[in-house]
Amino acid sequence: MSLENLFTRPDAWSGGYFILAMELGPRSDANLRTATIALWGHASFEGCFVSREAEPRDQSVISADQSDDNLGESLYGIATTPNGHEIPCASFTVRYDAEDSKPAADWLKLALPMGGLEIAYPVGAYPFGTAVTNEWLSEVNDWLGKIGTHVYEHVRFLFGIIGHEVPVSDESASWIAEHGIPKSSWDSYLIPQEEGLQRFLAVEHAPTDDLK
Question: What's the average model confidence in pLDDT over 25-54?
Fold first, then answer.
């Protein structure tokens, strides 16, 4: 475990989140629990912890296998990036009730704070202004895509999206089914197909005309 301050480092949780969001499907405690355990079981992560207000070394590690009373609560941990840096991370759950034509649904999100990503990459003020380089985007997108694939091996989720503060309330499996994969997007998509989970990647610097 890192002896450096990660959780309480100034600006560690600032700048919004770079997110892998997975639409797990209809509300299901079993699927949510399995997906959460699978996520935190990936080799990139150390944890979980209940608070981001204290350093991991000052907290007890808790299981991602949450009790019924705690299921869906936010969890915090340490992620090791592909280039070998330790950064703070979190998982969040959103459990939507059925509304109008939208069915009830569970979403599980892995969140990397931009202030934490700055430990490992020259993110600048992304997505605002100009970063020192946007080459990090390809590496982080690929990394989160592989993590999503790992979770998919345990829970066949309906849809995944990767990007900065991704709009899970707007884009979903049903939205993609109706409108198709956007031809121009800053975000990457994880779409289940007959041959397995397919990744449709965003480009590094700007929206693309061809995500494939």
Answer: 96
Q: Are the CB atoms for 53 and 8 separated by under 8 Å?
A: yes
212 domain residue, yes or no? no
Find tokens 């592989």 and name the residue: 146
Quick check: 11 pLDDT over 90?
A: yes
The answer to whether the CB of 87 falls within 8 A of the CB of 101 is no
Bridge pairing between strands 86-96 and 188-193: unpaired
- What is the domain range of residue 151? 17-200
Give the strand pairing for 159-164 and 105-113.
unpaired
CA distances from 207 to 22, 122, 188 (A): 21, 20, 10
The total number of structural domains in the chain stands at 1
> Which stretch of DSSP H or E encloses residue 106?
strand 105-113
Considering the domain boundaries, does residue 211 fall inside one? no
In a domain, 207, yes or no: no
